[in-house]
Each structure stands twice: as C-alpha cells, then as structure tokens.
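Q: What residues go here?
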C-alpha cells in the first residue's frame, strides 16, 4: 500500500514588529482623517478622546505608549536657557549639598555648576570670605602665587551690577596640578580679560570641611605629659646671696602659634617648640637662667618692606647699640636673612595692601592706617628670612633670639634691668619691642642684634603691650597707657583714666582697649587719645581683651566673657554676657566664626557666632562685604553677633593655663592629674 506522507505544517507567522520597533509615521500621516479630526477638537474634547482611546488599548500597546511618551516629557530647562540666566537661577541655592547633587544630573549641569561665580557667592554666604588670612594661607599651601592674583569681575546679575568671571576648575580634588587652571567649558561662557584665577570651588570645599571639623571633633595630634616639678640634679652651689637654688615649676607663662609651630615659654626657664602639623616636640631651647615670661614667634618667609639706610633708624646715639652680627656663623646669618641683605634695615612704614584676598572689592579688608595689627596667637609675619625665629624674655632680664630650625641662640640682648614682662615683634620687620618691670620699653633690631632705642615715661612696671604697624601701645601698673611711634621713639599720647593697675591692652590701629584691676574696660581713640567709652560689667580683674573690626571681647577673673558691639548707633553696647567659667578666664581668642575660652576651672569651651544675616545671603552678596571685610553692613548679624556654645574642646582638667589657635591647629596647656599636659588638635581636612 502506498504510504501517504503527513502534511507539512505551515510556517510560523512572523513576530509583530510593531511591538519591537518604534513607530515610524508615514509622510502623509498628518493627512489621516482621524488626525485631522483630532486637531479640530477643543482641549477638553481632545482629553476625552485620548482617555477613551487609552481604555481600548491592550497592555502591549500601553507599554508602547509609555516608552514613546517618557522621552518626550524629559526637558532640560537649564539647557533651554542662556547660560547667564541659568547661573542666575542657580545662585539662589543656599545649601552647598544641593549644588553638589545637581552636578550629578547631567554632564551639562556638571559643567555649568563648575562656574566659580556660584562658589564665590557660596563662600560669601557661608562667611568663608571674611578672613583674608585664610585666603592667603590657602594660596600659599596649595602653591598659588599671591602676586599672580588679579581682581576679577563680579557677576552681571549681582546686586552691585558688575561683571563676573567664567573661570572654573576641573575637579574637587585638592591637588596642585589643576588648582587655578582656567579653561572654557561647553556652556558657552567666555572668560574676560584679567580673570581671577582663585579656585573658589575648592576653597569652599576645604573651608567647609575645616569648619565641620571644628564643630564636631578634630583630630588629636599628640598629647605630651610632663611633671610640674621635674627632678633636677643636686646643685650644691648656692645662688646669689647664699640662698639655695629654687627650681620653678614647669608652668606655661606665654604661648605663640602659627601654621607651622607652637612655642611655649615655661616658668622653669625652658622653651618648648612643637610642630603644629604633627604635634611632635621638635626643640627644647635652653639658655635662660630664670623663668620665661614672654615669647614671640616669627614665621619664616614673608614680604620684605622697603629698605632704607640704617642711619635713618638708629635713633639716639646714646641709647642705640652697635650691631652684634659680625661674629655670627654663616648658618645663623642665613637664618636671620643677613646673607643677601647688606647694610640695610627694613623701613617701618606700612606696606601697601596685599593682593592676597580675591574677595576684596572696593576697599574691603584694607589695613589700618599704621599697618597690620598683631595676631592674637602671638606670632608675626617674617621679613623674608628663610627660617622661623623665636624671641623670648624673662626674669634674667635678657632678650634672646633663637633659630627654630637649629635650636641655636642667635643673639643675647642685654639692657633691661628687671624682668621682661611683655614682648611684641612687628609684622614684616626685624623689630622687637619689649616691656619690663624696670618701667621702660626697649626697641631692638633682632636681625643685627642691637638696641635701637629706649622708650621712657612709665613710672611703674610695664605689664602689657600691643602693636599695629609702627605704633605700639603699652599698659602699666602706673594706671596709664602710652601710645608710641616706634620709628621715632616719640610718646604720642598718655591715656589716663584707670584707677588701678592695667593688665591687658588691645590695639587694632583705630581703637585701643585697656582693662585692669578696677574691673572696667576703657576704649580710646588711637588718633586723638581721647577716651570714647567706659565699659562695665565685670566684677573682678579684667585680664583678657581682643578687638575685631566690629566687636570687643573681654574676659575677667570672675569667669565672665562679655562681648561689646563697635558698630554704628549700637557702639559699645553689650551684645552678650557669657558665664563661661566657674573661675578666672585664663585664655580668650576669637575670629569671625569662633570664640574659644579657657579657665582655671579646667575647661576649654568653643562658641560659634551666628551665621551671616539675610542681607548677606542675597544673590551677589559679595557687594555686601563692608570695609571691615565682614559680611553684612555690620559684620555678623548687623553688629549684634550672638554666639552659642558648641562643645568642650578637650576633657576637663584641674586648670587650663594657656590656649591659642590658628585656622587649623589648637594648642591647649592644662593641668591634669598633677602634671602639665599639652594637647595639640588639628582641624585640617584630611
């Protein structure tokens, strides 16, 4: 029988390509009668028609509609606007994290948010533009030349109505390869001539992290412990007068801090030098025969003032000494900068304003008329010498100049007939001024090792002094302050009004503040010498003072810290009274953001000033930077800068002798468990 083969199955139908390929409308789809009719409907009828059509679609058709419609709904509104308008919109963002998140939206947004105008405005809003020294320190640390800075143009949409730069930086990494390297990005902004190459974005990130470290918890670099009464070897030789030798305890009496070193003078005649970067005890200077009561640290480098002949500055030939640098070995001549200077001594005239502050605009952050005020940390700017130097004085009546790098004593300067109680070194000049219990002040050339002049007039011990440029203010136990011109030796003013001994003075070039045993603080006009305010509030000795451009802070033996306004109609009004400590305030230092106090109750407390006002937060707020360099018309909060307690900087001890800080380092000298304890904290971003 014949075998009939089974029928061949029909081929499988091809897949529906409409489900996998995007809809390709025909050229004449617009002429389709349904589309033509749809166009004639009203908006309400169109929505009803679409709703009815969707109800009839299958799930696969709905998926097709979703994948087709979703890309059409995505619209980059910033790309659709001119770049200048986009930047103006973004300038209203106050929170830096919002800008950082927005930079992840797209490549275009990332490039747009690299524009330094946004980050310059953010720096101003968060107060990072107020400290010109912080800006200069950032430039030095990251290899940016101070002289290369040219003033930029503010943004066209700023409230001041000026122009901006479009300079940007390539990343948030803190490496020296791309810092300040401008380039043109894809959004179409072109940098103007004379562009400001300061990396505002990186500077903001750096300062934000540093401030966060202050507010939360810093990094403890090192803790040093030493017995207060170290075991000295037996010395059978009696002291002068046949009395046995008395060894003083290792109590800190004076402190000086800069970005590289922490120097402390002790009552046992020693001077310790710690590294501010690692916390290691680098040097112990031995040479004084009695307690060290005053130290000053001179930072390495710095800008030299204009040189003028020595004969114009030697003063009275009966008091000026001959230079003692002739016998210095080459290594020490190099340390003080004598190997390339010849017979010239820097002028004490104030240098011109530095171009180190990119936020400066229209006179902001200008120096006082006589020069730069002293740093509250006890350090001073160098005059171009390659090594850091330390100047010290104490009970042995000698002023000593030390080289920090080698630890050698360069000069031993004699002239005082009693204990040297206070000491200041002028910024950018090798000039030291010392005050003594012998009732005199002496001016020294510490580069060549000689006495320049003697300032006489006080009738009792000179207890304190402060300097600004070429002028010095001294406070004495004779209840008076005196204002001196160091360059001429002339006493310009005698400030009388206190009824008891004066223990502390502060001088910013415009005002002089003095406090003492009569529990009052007096404020004087530096130009006329008139007393402009008598401030009360303390119930015991006023032992701590610091002036800023808008505020005066005082600390007393009653444990109180009081801040006074120095602005406008509210000048000399009490801003805030802080019951900071249970006993005497032993240390007080503040800047535009923080206030640090220490007391004999063993605590070190950190306070934060309130953020800038809404006036300063407006877009284009760089126009709100006033002559003092502070944000807002009156600095912080319109001159009423309240502060809040943040935290204790260290564990409480028995007492705190000294505290001082820089932007990134805080040094605390305290007593714990019967020992002298040194805690060095770092707040530098890692």
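A:
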């Amino acid at each position: 029988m014949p075998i009939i083969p089974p029928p061949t199955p029909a081929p499988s139908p091809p897949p529906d390509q409409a489900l996998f390929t995007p809809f390709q409308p025909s050229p004449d789809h617009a002429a389709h009668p349904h589309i033509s009719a749809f166009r004639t409907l009203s908006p309400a009828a169109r929505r009803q028609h679409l709703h009815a059509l969707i109800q009839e679609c299958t799930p696969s058709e709905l998926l097709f509609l979703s994948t087709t419609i979703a890309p059409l709904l995505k619209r980059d509104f910033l790309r659709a606007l001119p770049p200048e308008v986009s930047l103006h919109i973004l300038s209203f963002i106050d929170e830096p994290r919002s800008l950082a998140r927005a930079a992840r939206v797209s490549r275009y947004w990332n490039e747009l948010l690299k524009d330094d105008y946004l980050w310059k405005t953010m720096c101003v809003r968060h107060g990072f533009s107020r400290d010109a020294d912080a800006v200069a320190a950032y430039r030095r640390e990251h290899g940016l030349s101070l002289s290369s800075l040219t003033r930029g143009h503010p943004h066209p949409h700023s409230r001041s109505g000026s122009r901006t730069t479009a300079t940007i930086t390539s990343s948030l990494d803190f490496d020296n390869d791309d810092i300040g390297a401008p380039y043109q990005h894809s959004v179409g902004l072109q940098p103007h001539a004379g562009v400001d190459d300061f990396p505002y974005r990186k500077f903001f990130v750096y300062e934000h992290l540093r401030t966060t470290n202050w507010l939360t918890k810093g990094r403890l670099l090192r803790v040093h412990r030493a017995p207060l009464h170290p075991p000295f070897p037996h010395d059978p030789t009696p002291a002068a007068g046949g009395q046995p030798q008395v060894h003083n305890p290792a109590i800190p009496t004076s402190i000086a801090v800069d970005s590289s070193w922490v120097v402390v003078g002790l009552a046992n005649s020693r001077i310790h030098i710690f590294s501010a970067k690692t916390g290691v005890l680098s040097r112990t200077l031995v040479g004084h025969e009695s307690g060290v009561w005053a130290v000053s640290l001179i930072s390495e480098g710095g800008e030299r003032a204009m040189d003028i002949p020595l004969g114009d500055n030697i003063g009275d030939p009966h008091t000026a000494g001959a230079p003692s640098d002739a016998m210095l070995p080459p290594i020490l001549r190099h340390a003080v900068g004598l190997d390339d200077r010849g017979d010239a001594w820097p002028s004490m005239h104030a240098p011109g304003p530095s171009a180190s502050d990119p936020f400066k605009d229209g006179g902001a952050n200008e120096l006082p008329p006589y020069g730069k005020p002293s740093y509250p940390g006890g350090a001073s700017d160098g005059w171009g010498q390659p090594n850091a130097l330390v100047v010290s004085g104490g009970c042995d009546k000698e002023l000593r100049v030390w080289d920090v790098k080698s630890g050698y004593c360069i000069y031993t300067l004699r002239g005082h007939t009693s204990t040297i109680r206070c000491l200041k070194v002028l910024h950018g000049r090798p000039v030291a001024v010392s005050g003594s219990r012998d009732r005199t002040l002496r001016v020294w050339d510490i580069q060549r090792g000689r006495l320049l002049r003697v300032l006489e007039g006080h009738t009792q011990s000179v207890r304190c002094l402060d300097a600004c440029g070429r002028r010095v203010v001294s406070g004495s136990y004779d209840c008076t302050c005196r204002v001196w011109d160091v360059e001429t030796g002339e006493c310009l003013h005698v400030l009388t009004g206190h009824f008891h001994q004066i223990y502390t003075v502060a001088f910013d070039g415009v005002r002089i503040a003095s406090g003492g045993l009569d529990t009052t603080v007096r404020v004087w006009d530096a130009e006329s010498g008139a007393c402009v305010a008598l401030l009360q509030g303390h119930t015991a000795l006023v032992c701590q003072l610091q002036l800023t451009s808008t505020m005066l802070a005082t600390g007393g033996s009653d444990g109180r810290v009081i801040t006074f306004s120095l602005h406008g109609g509210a000048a000399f009004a009490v801003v805030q009274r802080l019951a900071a400590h249970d006993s005497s305030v032993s240390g007080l230092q503040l800047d535009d953001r923080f206030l640090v106090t220490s007391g004999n109750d063993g605590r070190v407390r950190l306070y934060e000033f309130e953020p800038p006002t809404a006036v300063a937060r407006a877009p284009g707020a760089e126009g709100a930077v006033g002559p003092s360099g502070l944000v807002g018309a009156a600095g912080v909060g319109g001159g009423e800068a309240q502060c809040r307690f943040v935290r204790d900087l260290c564990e409480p001890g028995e007492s705190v002798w000294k505290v001082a800080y820089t932007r990134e380092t805080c040094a605390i000298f305290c007593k714990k468990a019967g020992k002298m304890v040194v805690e060095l904290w770092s707040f530098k971003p890692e």
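A: Context that may help when evaluating the design: The CA atoms of residues 152 and 195 lie 5 Å apart. The radius of gyration is 34 Å.
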